[in-house]
Design brief:
It is built from 5 helices and 8 strands; from the N terminus they run E-E-H-H-E-H-H-E-E-H-E-E-E. By secondary structure, it is of the alpha+beta class. Strand 4 and strand 5 form a beta hairpin. It starts with a strand and ends with a strand.
């Protein structure tokens, strides 16, 4: 486990830990070979009868098409349109698949991370037309952003 520090504590978290957190959100789901990507998690949720209500987000689509430039703050507002994460947060981006490790950080540090650290570590800006998975285990909250410009948030109420 390595740490990155620029006024934010970020850890690398093994995919198996993040997948276990997802299974806590969808406790009776069963789907072999699922991955930490929106399409696969959507299928996982469906196996327990949970329909994820995807929301078209024109600004995400326009950004993917190169028509609109979204800054990190605007992107996060679109991502967390219904529920704001609190506490521990796991984040999976396309860059995480090389090492099969997610980013782990406190949700209060998310904006700082996406503005500064992500680009330093990956040499590309955070906001890209790609898939994102945010898992907030303390709230049983998952936020998925699909590369085609859709977003969904699901929170399991205990």
């Amino acid at each position: 486990m390595s740490c990155i520090s620029v006024m934010v504590h970020v850890e690398r978290i093994e995919f198996k830990i993040v997948k276990n957190a997802v299974l806590e959100i969808f406790p009776i789901a069963s789907f072999e070979g699922w991955e930490l990507i929106p399409d696969s998690i959507h299928q996982l949720a469906a196996t327990q009868g949970t329909e994820l209500p995807w929301k078209d987000t024109p600004n995400l689509t326009a950004h993917a098409d190169g028509l609109v430039d979204l800054d990190e703050s605007e992107f996060l507002q679109l991502a967390f349109y219904k529920h704001k994460p609190q506490g521990r947060l796991y984040l999976v981006t396309h860059n995480c698949f090389n090492k099969r490790e997610a980013y782990g950080l406190d949700s209060r540090d998310l904006l700082e991370f996406v503005k500064n650290i992500h680009e330093l570590e990956n040499e590309v800006p955070f906001v890209q037309p790609t898939d994102y998975v945010f898992v907030n285990p303390e709230q049983n909250l998952i936020t998925l952003i699909h590369h085609e410009g859709q977003v969904v948030q699901y929170r399991r109420w205990i």
